[in-house]
Every structure is written in C-alpha cells, then in structure tokens.
Write a structure and sequence with these properties.
two-stranded antiparallel sheet, 2 domains, Rossmann fold, Alpha-Beta Plaits, single chain, 5-stranded parallel β-sheet, alpha/beta, 361 residues, 12 helices
C-alpha cells in the first residue's frame, strides 16, 4: 500500500538556513518520485494547504527564536487544518558555531516540542524531530561567522538533513530532537520569558543609520510585515521577530542593533518599573510575600517593559532626524564597525539553490 504520494514542506526563514534545509529535503524526495511542494510562509499569505487526495507527508522547517519555534510558525501551526492521522515531521535550525575543528551545537528548548504537541492535539502523527546546527545568524549578539566556517558547517549539515529525510522516506522514525531533552527542558523558562516579553524588547533594538537611502528592501522582505516607513525612515513594530533578515540583507549596511540605546532603555525601564509595581501593589494591598504578589508583579513588569520600551523607541525614532543623536546611536552600536560581519553568504546560497533546480514539482 502506498504510504505517501506527496511531500509538503512549509518553512519560515530569516537568512536562509531553514530555506536551504527545506530545499535539501525536497531534492531527496523528488529522487523517490514524490510530488514535492515547498512553501515559504512569509506573512502567512498565499499558502496552499496539503491536498488529502495526494496522501501527503507534511514537514515544517523553522529557525529557533529564544529557545522556541519562530512565533510566526507557531501561529501557522495553530491555524493549520486538523489532521486525520496524517504524518508530519519538524526540523528546527539553531545557532551552530565552530571552534577550531569542533562543531558546537545550539539549543532547541521547546522549539520542536511545542509545535509537535500542537500538531498532536490537532490529530497528526509526528514521525520526525530533527535539530540542525546551521550557522548562527544572530548579528545582534555576535559578528557573522567567517566564510570558511560557514561552508564547513553547511557541508556537515547537508549530510544530516539529507540523511534525516532519507530515513523518514524509507519508513523509519527519527527523534533526534529528543536527545537533548534534559537540557532543553532546563532552558524552557527562557522560552516562555522570550515569548511573552523578551521578543518585544528585542524588536525595539533595530534602527537605520545615516547610510539608509530608503531603498525599501527591508520593508518589502520582512517576513512578518513588521517594518514600516515612519517619518521617512524604517520603523520596527512590536511584531518584529528578530529573524535578522533585514540587518543581514541590507545592501548598504544601514541597519544596526542599537546596543547603547538598548542599555539606556533597560536602565530607564528598571527605574520606572520598580516604582510603578510598588505603587500598584500598595494600592491593591497585596502582601509582598504572597503568591499573587509574585504573579502580578511579574506580569506588571513584563507589561511595563513592553510599554516603556515602545514609548522610548518611538521617541528615539524621531530623534534620529537629529544628526548628533543619529551618530551617537550609530557609534554606540557594535554592528556599525567593519569587523562586525553580517551573515548573508549570498554566493554560497546561490550555489546551493542553483544546484537544486525547481524544488517544487
């Protein structure tokens, strides 16, 4: 009996890691004669759902954000049609590094576990969980890796990804993503903190410097539609997921992470928020040692961080029109310096994609 007649892969990718992984898997599937459909879910627009008549195997490929699946992928999975026992697999790209000849893996947290659970609730059977340690692209934290390092990581990960889908297509189940379960569960609180608060703070750390010529590339290519023109400059909304597509692909290196301003934001937030929490708790008459005090103070802290940061960012955005302020922001950012490499590796990706002609057939 024919198990599958088609393979559908849905991916979201900031800088191409999940996209490359999806293309590798589609290439292997096509060799077996499976009809393959690879779709990018940018902005959750123009997405074709699997055709039940084609007996689909369904895959989801996405980057790891804050030890969790990218929020846009979680929204996509949440809105995915209910399954009738269909088989699915998940693959997450995470921050791979390399020290000399040693490949250093990233951490998944709940990046695989949460969407797998959501799909199980919807009636799907998960037959594969695979992390892939492609190069870290988080330029806000570190410079982009060197080209030779990127190439060696890609070479290693291609074998892993192709081997993963080959095993699935021969009827095997692969749960490599569970091997690091103890560590993943240990960092899971960070996943929650990132999802309910951290990602909103990080969204307000991006700015365009004086090199910006309003070419519009960042606005057009943002996968969540989170960059808009405000006062003739790109403006990052709270819905930004820090996928790093804009900062890595800007043709003029005009997008920076405002490290200095982020520190100032945090200092101001800490000073204001502490006083606000004490005032509200006093008004509500909660004991500072009670459970409800702990819950309410943390929720207020998160809400305060988002509100205060968004307000300060809005002020900063308009202040960027002033040349002295603009230069202060730029030169208190590590990403402005030439040694802080971007992660775009365009030549390598073009070479990979040209070798994988027509991944959807």
């Amino acid at each position: 009996m024919e198990r599958w007649r088609s393979l559908y892969i849905y991916f979201i990718s900031g800088t191409g890691n999940a996209k490359v992984s999806s293309f590798w898997m589609a290439d292997e599937a096509r060799k077996t004669g499976l009809l393959t459909k690879v779709q990018q879910i940018d902005r959750l627009e123009n997405i074709i759902m699997p055709d039940p008549e084609l007996k689909p195997l369904i895959g989801f490929a996405f980057p790891t954000h804050g030890f969790n699946a990218a929020p846009i992928m979680l929204r996509f999975v949440a809105g995915f049609p209910r399954g009738m026992g269909n088989e699915v697999f998940l693959i997450n790209t995470r921050a791979g590094m390399k020290l000399s000849k040693l490949f250093i893996p990233g951490l998944s947290g709940v990046a695989l576990l949460l969407p797998a659970f959501m799909l199980w609730i919807k009636g799907y059977k998960c037959i594969g969980l695979q992390p892939v340690d492609l190069p870290s692209n988080w330029i806000s934290l570190h410079p982009g890796l060197r080209e030779k390092v990127i190439e060696s990581i890609f070479e290693r990960c291609e074998k892993i990804v192709r081997g993963f889908i080959q095993k699935l297509l021969t009827g095997k189940k692969v749960y490599r993503g569970l091997f690091s379960l103890p560590v993943d569960l240990l960092v899971s609180p960070v996943s929650l903190a990132y999802y309910i608060g951290g990602r909103f703070f990080l969204s307000k750390t991006f700015v365009s410097n004086n090199k910006c010529n309003n070419c519009g590339v960042c606005i057009r290519e943002c996968p969540t539609g989170s960059i808009i023109p405000v006062n003739n400059r790109p403006y990052w909304k709270l819905s930004c997921e820090s996928c790093m597509r804009c900062i890595n692909n800007c043709p003029n290196r005009a997008i920076e992470t405002a490290h200095g301003m982020a520190i100032i934001f945090w200092i101001i937030f800490s000073a204001i928020n502490a006083q606000l929490i004490l005032l509200i708790i006093k008004v509500l008459d909660f004991s500072t040692g009670s459970f409800w005090w702990w819950i309410i103070s943390n929720l207020l802290s998160i809400a305060g961080m988002v509100l205060i940061t968004a307000t300060l960012y809005h002020i900063m955005h308009y202040a960027m029109a002033l040349k002295p302020f603009r230069y202060f922001v730029r030169f208190t950012s590590l990403t402005t310096f030439s040694f802080w490499r971007r992660y775009n590796n365009k030549e390598l990706k073009e070479k990979i994609f040209s070798a994988l002609k027509n991944p959807t057939s």
